[in-house]
Amino acid sequence: WPAGTTLVSIYDSDDVAPVLRYKPDHVLQLAFDDIVPEMAYELCGLAETKTKTVDEMVALLENMGFVAFSDEMAKRLASFIAMHLAETKLLVCQCQHGQSRSAAVAAAVCEVLQAGGSLTYFGDDRYSPNRRVYDKLLEQLLSQCK
Q1: pLDDT tens digits for range 12-45
Q2: Which of 32, 68, 77, 87, by CA, is between 20 and 30 Å from 17?
């Protein structure tokens, strides 16, 4: 890793944390699933979720064993980024597929550091940023990276 690299590594809740043979200067590994409310429709059926709020659908998925990105995770991640921001020359965000969870983290960081920077991720067909991750992290970053 080049000097000044900070890594955010995201993995599924039912996996073990990846072992990094070579470590960058700063590493945060988080385990949570790529939960979106539409999963509840798919897994539980539209009739069962038709009258539920987004939070109720997320709770339904958590009851099935999925781990959602939480407010506590958002605070932890935002604190990690804020703590290392001044010395970070390269921020790497990665997850299993590199399209949703890590794209949401990158989009939130870009939005805070360069207004409108999240459009890079929301406007690119290669990415589908997880809105739950993006919204929760953006709120925390805005409060911690002033």
Answers
A1: 999 999 899 999 999 999 999 998 777 777 777 7
A2: 87
When computed from its CA atoms, the radius of gyration of the chain, rounded to whole angstroms, is 16
**Residue range 96-108: mean pLDDT, rounded:** 93
C-alpha 68/C-alpha 33 separation (Å) is 6
Cβ proximity of 85 and 25 under 8 Å: no
Beta-strand relationship, 90-94 and 26-31 = unpaired
Name the pTM for this structure: 0.90
Is residue 100 within 8 A of residue 128, CB to CB? The reply is: yes
Helices 101-113 and 131-144 meet at what angle, rounded to 10?
30
